[in-house]
Design a protein that fits this description.
alpha/beta, eleven-stranded mixed β-sheet, three-stranded antiparallel β-sheet, 10 helices, 29% helix
Length: 347
């Protein structure tokens, strides 16, 4: 069988020596949508990544008997959750992409106990014609991030299931998350404090969060990245004064809950993924028929926001041709889904 073949293969091949590494060495370079349109490679060190896992374990404790379901791409910082499970001996179920029917089946058949989903995905599960509360009976907590939970969705979920919800605030540059809205916070939000759903929770004990004069959220923590790969100026700006400048504008309430008021970055959040408007605009301007364009996020019930392009054209061009052109240079989730034509863009 497979096990015997593996054992035989091991005896035939001498193990390669492990490279010498230090805690300050890079372990992962993850590309993040940059505000200038050029994605930046955030360098996470062994030290920052391990610190990010310690924070995650505080916000979302792992039981060694957990079975964790993860339907997102592994090239995303959220994949730290997969390694978090392994660190504490829990099992992981991976999925190539999210399908509501398959997710319900997997949760039922494999007795999934914890999972990460975007709010849009939770809605898809509840809306699925095959949905039965029994499918998710084994699920203890669902973690989400990147976009807020609508109150109506929270109440629908709690009416059907006895499940804990946990939201986190994080980013690639933080090797994970720095603040959590806990299971208890969500219970409060469903009853007496609905405004908490607009919050990203309280900072963890492992991080310091401060607000700059303009309200920008600054983070000081062991889990902060080393810098951006081969982008010295961007690194110096992001880590000025020893604090990570997040580009998010926030406020604290009297109880210490953090709220994201605005993004300094021109960012669209679609299905939990960040899309920088300028990156998409630069690609579209390369098309010979496009004179000018603006890329915006339009409200979308399923995805939160849908990437949409407003164009000023110098020659007629069809939506399909534009979609194909954008898709040849951009990831699928960054490609505009809606196209509009105008005589001129507002100034």
């Amino acid at each position: 069988g497979l096990q015997r073949d593996y054992a035989h293969w091991l005896t035939e091949h001498a193990p390669a020596p492990l490279p010498a590494t230090s805690v300050e060495d890079p372990v992962w370079i993850l590309y993040t949508s940059g505000t200038t349109g050029r994605p930046k490679g955030a360098i996470l060190s062994h030290r920052s990544f391990a610190a990010g896992l310690r924070s995650a374990a505080l916000g979302r404790p792992v039981d060694p008997l957990d079975r964790y379901f993860y339907p997102f791409p592994l090239f995303h910082v959220a994949a730290h959750n997969v390694l978090l499970q392994h660190k504490y001996g829990a099992g992981v179920v991976l999925s190539r992409s999210f399908d509501a029917g398959e997710t319900l089946r997997v949760c039922r058949d494999l007795k999934v106990t914890t999972m990460s989903l975007a709010p849009t995905m939770i809605a898809m599960l509840l809306d699925h014609p095959d949905f039965e509360p029994a499918d998710l009976a084994s699920v203890r907590t669902i973690g989400y991030g990147a976009s807020a939970m609508p109150t109506t969705l929270l109440q629908r979920l709690f009416a059907k299931l006895d499940v804990g919800l946990c939201q986190s605030y994080g980013m690639t540059e933080l090797s994970g998350s720095a603040a959590f809205l806990t299971v208890e916070d969500h219970r409060l939000a469903a009853t007496s404090r609905p405004e908490l759903l607009q919050s990203v929770g309280k900072p963890l004990a492992t991080v310091a969060i401060a607000l700059a004069q303009d309200g920008e959220i600054l983070v000081k923590a062991e889990q902060c990245m080393l810098g951006y790969w081969q982008q010295a100026e961007a690194t110096a700006a992001a880590l000025a004064g020893g604090w990570l400048h997040t580009g998010d504008v926030g406020r604290f309430d009297a109880q210490g809950y953090l709220y994201i008021v605005d993004r300094k970055k021109d960012m669209i959040i679609s299905g939990g993924e960040n899309v920088a408007s300028r990156e998409v605009e630069e690609v579209l301007r390369g098309h010979p028929a496009v004179r000018d364009c603006a890329v915006i996020g339009l409200p979308d019930e399923r995805w939160g926001e849908t990437v949409s392009a407003v164009l000023v054209t110098r020659a007629p061009v069809g939506d399909e041709e534009l979609t194909e052109y954008a898709r040849s240079q951009l990831a699928g989730y960054k490609t505009p889904r809606r196209w509009f034509r105008m005589e001129a863009l507002p100034i």
